[in-house]
Specification:
The complex is a heterodimer. The termini of chain A are far apart. Chain A has one domain: Response regulator (Rossmann fold, 3-Layer(aba) Sandwich), CATH 3.40.50. In chain A, helix 2 packs parallel to helix 3. Chain A is built from five helices and five strands, in the order E-H-E-H-E-H-E-H-E-H. Helices cover about 55% and strands about 15% of the residues of chain A. By secondary structure, chain A is an alpha/beta fold. Helices cover about 40% and strands about 20% of the residues of chain B. Chain B has helices spanning about 25-35, 75-90, 95-110, 140-150, 160-165, 220-255, 260-275, 315-325, 385-450, 465-490, 505-515, 540-555, 620-630, and strands spanning about 10-15, 45-50, 55, 115-120, 130-135, 170, 190-195, 200-210, 280-285, 290-295, 310, 325-330, 350-360, 365-375, 500, 520-525, 535, 560-570, 585-595, 635-640, 650-655. In chain B, helix 2 (about 75-90) runs parallel beside helix 6 and helix 10 (about 465-490) runs parallel beside helix 13. The longest helix of chain B has about 60 residues, at about 385-450. The chains are: A alpha/beta, B alpha+beta. The interface of A and B includes residues 13 and 19 of A.
C-alpha cells in the first residue's frame, strides 16, 4: 500500500486531503507543521512514497525545507507542493530542486482534489519507473561485474 | 538723566509745542514733565526740539496766571518724579487696562487741579466713543451715559472734535466758546487731549474740565499728553499681546486638531474675534474641481459652507487664489475685480476688505479673507493696516502648515496601509484560499457519497455523514465571513464620520452591550465625574472598545476581572512613556485592565501589528484595527500591563474643549 505524508498547518485542509487520499486507499500520515513533517519523515521506518506539502506554513519556504528533508531521507520520494493561487514563484523553485509538481489550492473552476489524485498517481508512476530503472541499472552492473 | 533745569526747582521749563504727542518722547520727557507738574510761576525757559535734543531757547514771557499751587521745592520735584515713574510703571505692569485708565484719569484730575475728568475710547468696530474711566466730582450714571453716547452726531462734542482732528483742545473759558455744549453747568474751562496710537490712529481722548476759568495751561496739556501717550502705549501693547496670544493659541490648536472642519471654524473665530474683524471666511481650493470652496465662516454665509465657491481668478477671492498675492482695499465694490458673489456684508456696509493666500508646500491652497463694517464715525478709519495684513498672513501660513501636516499625515497613513495591503493580499489568499480549499474538499466528498461526481458509483451513505459534511461547509463559510468582516473593518478603520459625543457615556454603553452579564468575569467601572466631550466616530469607537472587552473575556474563560475607567488627562499630567501624543492638549483616557494572562514582554511590540494573533481564529487584525481607529482619531492606544498580572490597555483620545 502506498504511503503518503500530508504536511499542512491548517486543520481543515489536512483533514480534507487525508479523507480524499484515504478514499483512494492510500496509507495517509498527517503533520501539522514543517517541524512535525520533518520528524515524521525521519522517524518513518520505510520512507514515504509521496509527500504533499503546503508551500507556506508561517515560513514562505516551508515547502522547500520539506522537499529537502524528503529527498534527504529517500531520493525516490516524490514531493507535490501546494501553493496559494497565483503565488507560484516558490513552487517553481521547488520544481528546480526536484519536486514532482505543484498544485494551486484554489484554481478557479477546477476540482483540485481530483487534480491532486491524478498528480499523486503520476508521481507514484514516476517513482515506480525510477525505482525500476535503478534496479535494472544495478542488475546490469552486477551482470557486467560477473561477466 | 536729570535735566539741570529741574534741579533745585529754580529754573522752570514749559513746553511750547502745541501738538505735543509728536514731540514728547519718554526718554527725554521725564524731567520736563516733572517741572510741568510743578506749575512754574517765575521765569520760564522755553525748550524747542532740535534734532533729538530739547534745547533751551529764550522766548517772550508766558502769560502768568494765578495758581493755587506752591512753588516746588526740591522735595516737590522728587515727589513729582516719583509720581511719573510710578505712572510709567503702571503702564507696563501686568494690571488690567481698565485699572490703568482709572488710575490715569484720577492722576490727571489730581495733578492738574481739574474738577472732573474722563477717558473715552473708540469702540473699534464702529468708532463710537465710550467713556471707560471717570474721576472727580459730580458724576452720575446719567451724566456718564449722556456725555458722548450714541445719540446725536459725535462730531459736535469737544471730545469727538479731538478724536477727529487728533489735536489737543483747550478752552480757557467756555463763555467765550459759543459752540460749546455744557454737560455740567459748573464748567468754565476744558482740556481734551487725544490718545494716539503708534501709526497715528486716534484711539481715544482724555478729557479734563474745571469750574475755574483758565485752569488749564500748556503745562497741564503737556502732562495730560504724557498720560495719553502712556495710555496709548499700553493699549497698543494690549492689542499686540492679544494678537500674539491668538497666534500662539491658533498654532497650538492647529497642531493638535482632530477635525479639520472644527479647526477651520476655530481659525475663523480667532481671526474675527481677537483680531477684531467683522467677519472672516476661509476658502480652500478643491483639487478636483479647481475651485475655492467656502469651508468656514462666522456670519451670514454659514449655510453656504461647502457650497459657495469661486472659480480661480473669479472675483477678488478668486484673484487672490490665482495670483497668491494679498488684496487690501477699503471698499471692494469699487474694485474692478469685485463680483459680489458670496458676501458676508452688503456692498454698502463693507468698510474694508483684506484677503490673503493660504500657502502650503504645493502652492496656494486657499484664501483667508476678512471684512470690516463701515465706520459710523467719519473720523475713525477702519481700513486694514499693514500690521493687520501681516497678522492675517501669519494665520494663513499656520493654516497652510496645518494643511500640509494633515496631507502628510494622510499620506503616511496611506503608505502604511498600502504596505499592509501587500501583506494583506498574501495573507488573505493564504487564509481565504485555505478555507475555500477545505469547503471544496467537503463538496468533493459530498459528490462522492451522493454518487454525483464524475465516474462515481453511489455508495451507502447515512444522513449523519451528509449532515457532518454540510456542517463542515457551514463552519467554513462562517469563518470566511468572519475574515471578510475583519478585512472590511481594517480597511475602513481610518475613515471616520465624527460627531460630538461624550466618551464616558459611549464607554458605558459599549460595556453594557458587549460585556456578558452572566459570565465568569467580574466587572468594575469607574467613570469620570466631569464630562469628556470629543469629536469622534461612535460606531468605530464602539468597535474598538468592544474588541478589547471581547479579548479580555476570551482570555479569562475560567473567571477573572475587568476594570473599566475613564478620566481626563491634562497637559501637565504624566503619561506612560509608551504614549506618543502631541503635547499641549487635553485628552480622555479610557482604561481596560483585565486579570488574564497579560501580554508577554516579547509580544508587546507585536500585538498591534496586523496578522499577529494568539488565538486560532480570524486574521489577527483585531488589535491592528483598534489601533487604526484610535490613531485616525489622533489619539493613541498602548498596553502597559505586567506579564502574568493581566493586560492593561490605555486609550487616549483628544478632548473637544472650549466650544
Amino acid at each position: 500500500m502506498c504511503r503518503i505524508l500530508v504536511v499542512d498547518d491548517e486543520d481543515e485542509v489536512r483533514a480534507s486531503l487525508a479523507r480524499r487520499l484515504e478514499r483512494e486507499g492510500f496509507n495517509v500520515t498527517v503533520a501539522a507543521s514543517e517541524d512535525e513533517g520533518l520528524s515524521a519523515m525521519k522517524e518513518a521506518v520505510k520512507p514515504f512514497d509521496v509527500v504533499i506539502t503546503d508551500m507556506n506554513m508561517g515560513d514562505p519556504n516551508s515547502g522547500v525545507h520539506i522537499l529537502e528533508g524528503a529527498v534527504g531521507r529517500d531520493v525516490f520520494t516524490e514531493v507535490i507542493v501546494l501553493t496559494a493561487y497565483g503565488n507560484v514563484a516558490n513552487a517553481v523553485e521547488c520544481m528546480k530542486r526536484g519536486a514532482f509538481d505543484y498544485v494551486e489550492k484554489n484554481l478557479p473552476g477546477v476540482d483540485v482534489f481530483e487534480l491532486l489524485i491524478l498528480k499523486v498517481e503520476q508521481a507514484l508512476e514516476r517513482r515506480r519507473s525510477s525505482v525500476q530503472t535503478v534496479r535494472r541499472l544495478e542488475k546490469f552492473q552486477k551482470e557486467m561485474g560477473k561477466g | 538723566m536729570v535735566n539741570p533745569a529741574c534741579q533745585g526747582g529754580e529754573r522752570k521749563i514749559v513746553l511750547i509745542e502745541k501738538n505735543i504727542p509728536k514731540y514728547v518722547h519718554f526718554g527725554t520727557a521725564i524731567p520736563i514733565r516733572s517741572s510741568v507738574l510743578a506749575k512754574p510761576r517765575g521765569d520760564k525757559l522755553y525748550y524747542r526740539r532740535n534734532g533729538s535734543h530739547l534745547q533751551p531757547e529764550p522766548r517772550k514771557r508766558h502769560e502768568r496766571r494765578a495758581s493755587r499751587r506752591r512753588r516746588p521745592s526740591g522735595e516737590g520735584v522728587r515727589a513729582e518724579l516719583t509720581r511719573l515713574s510710578r505712572l510709567s510703571q503702571v503702564a507696563v505692569s501686568g494690571g488690567g487696562v481698565s485699572e490703568l485708565l482709572d488710575n490715569y484719569v484720577e492722576e490727571a484730575v489730581t495733578a492738574t487741579g481739574a474738577t472732573r475728568g474722563f477717558i473715552a475710547l473708540a469702540e473699534v468696530e464702529t468708532g463710537d466713543l465710550e467713556i471707560v474711566a471717570i474721576a472727580g466730582a459730580g458724576w452720575t450714571d446719567e451724566a456718564r451715559r449722556n456725555r458722548l453716547g450714541r445719540r446725536g452726531p459725535t462730531g459736535t462734542t469737544i471730545t469727538a472734535r479731538v478724536a477727529t482732528t487728533g489735536k489737543c483742545v483747550r478752552i480757557d473759558d467756555v463763555e467765550d466758546a459759543p459752540n460749546y455744549q455744557p454737560f455740567f453747568a459748573d464748567i468754565r474751562s476744558v482740556l481734551a487731549v487725544p490718545i494716539v496710537e503708534p501709526g497715528e490712529r486716534v484711539r481715544g481722548v482724555i478729557n479734563l474740565e474745571s469750574e475755574t476759568p483758565g485752569e488749564f495751561t500748556t503745562d497741564e496739556e503737556a502732562f495730560a499728553s504724557v498720560l495719553a501717550d502712556m495710555a496709548a502705549l499700553r493699549l497698543s501693547m494690549e492689542d499686540k499681546s492679544a494678537r500674539q496670544a491668538a497666534l500662539i493659541q491658533n498654532g497650538k490648536d492647529l497642531s493638535i486638531a482632530a477635525d479639520a472642519d472644527a479647526l477651520m471654524k476655530k481659525v475663523a473665530d480667532v481671526a474675527a474675534e481677537i483680531l477684531r474683524f467683522e467677519d472672516c471666511s476661509i476658502f480652500l481650493i478643491d483639487r478636483a474641481t479647481r475651485r475655492a470652496v467656502l469651508v468656514a465662516t462666522r456670519g451670514p454665509l454659514a449655510p453656504q459652507i461647502g457650497k459657495a465657491y469661486y472659480e480661480i481668478g473669479e472675483g477678488l477671492t478668486g484673484w487672490v487664489a490665482e495670483h497668491g498675492v494679498p488684496v487690501r482695499i477699503g471698499s471692494p465694490k469699487n474694485d474692478p475685480r469685485h463680483k459680489g458673489l458670496h458676501q458676508e456684508l452688503k456692498d454698502e456696509e463693507t468698510g474694508a476688505f483684506l484677503a490673503v493666500p493660504i500657502r502650503s508646500t504645493t502652492g496656494v491652497v486657499g484664501v483667508l479673507r476678512v471684512l470690516r463694517k463701515n465706520s459710523t464715525s467719519p473720523w475713525f478709519p477702519n481700513d486694514f493696516t499693514e500690521e493687520d495684513e501681516q497678522v492675517l498672513l501669519t494665520i494663513a501660513s499656520q493654516v497652510g502648515a496645518a494643511i500640509d501636516n494633515a496631507q502628510l499625515f494622510a499620506r503616511l497613513v496611506q503608505a502604511e496601509r498600502m504596505a499592509a495591503w501587500g501583506e494583506m493580499s498574501a495573507m488573505s489568499s493564504h487564509m481565504i484560499g485555505n478555507r475555500v480549499f477545505a469547503i471544496k474538499g467537503d463538496l468533493n466528498e459530498l459528490e462522492h457519497v451522493l454518487g454525483t461526481g464524475p465516474g462515481h458509483e453511489p455508495v451507502t451513505v447515512t444522513r449523519e455523514q451528509i449532515a457532518l459534511l454540510v456542517g463542515n461547509m457551514k463552519r467554513g463559510i462562517f469563518r470566511l465571513e468572519e475574515l471578510l468582516r475583519e478585512f472590511r473593518d481594517f480597511v475602513r478603520a481610518t475613515s471616520l464620520s465624527p460627531v460630538p459625543l461624550e466618551l464616558s457615556e459611549l464607554t458605558r454603553s459599549v460595556v453594557e452591550e458587549t460585556f456578558p452579564k452572566r459570565g465568569p468575569v467580574a466587572l468594575t467601572t469607574d467613570y469620570a465625574q466631569e464630562p469628556l466631550p470629543a469629536q469622534a466616530d461612535p460606531v468605530k469607537l464602539k468597535r474598538a472598545f468592544a474588541e478589547i472587552i471581547e479579548n479580555a473575556v476570551t482570555f479569562q474563560e475560567r473567571g477573572g476581572s475587568l476594570q473599566v475607567a475613564t478620566r481626563r488627562v491634562g497637559p501637565g499630567d504624566v503619561l506612560p512613556p509608551e504614549v506618543s501624543l502631541p503635547r499641549g492638549g487635553a485628552y480622555a483616557c479610557i482604561e481596560f485592565a483585565d486579570g488574564g494572562p497579560g501580554i508577554r514582554e516579547e509580544d508587546k511590540s507585536k500585538i498591534f501589528r496586523p496578522f499577529f494573533t494568539s488565538r486560532n481564529r480570524g486574521m489577527g487584525l483585531g488589535l491592528a484595527i483598534v489601533k487604526g481607529i484610535i490613531e485616525a482619531h489622533h489619539g493613541d492606544l498602548v498596553e502597559v500591563g505586567k506579564p502574568g498580572e493581566g493586560a492593561r490597555f490605555l486609550i487616549f483620545l483628544p478632548l473637544r474643549e472650549g466650544d
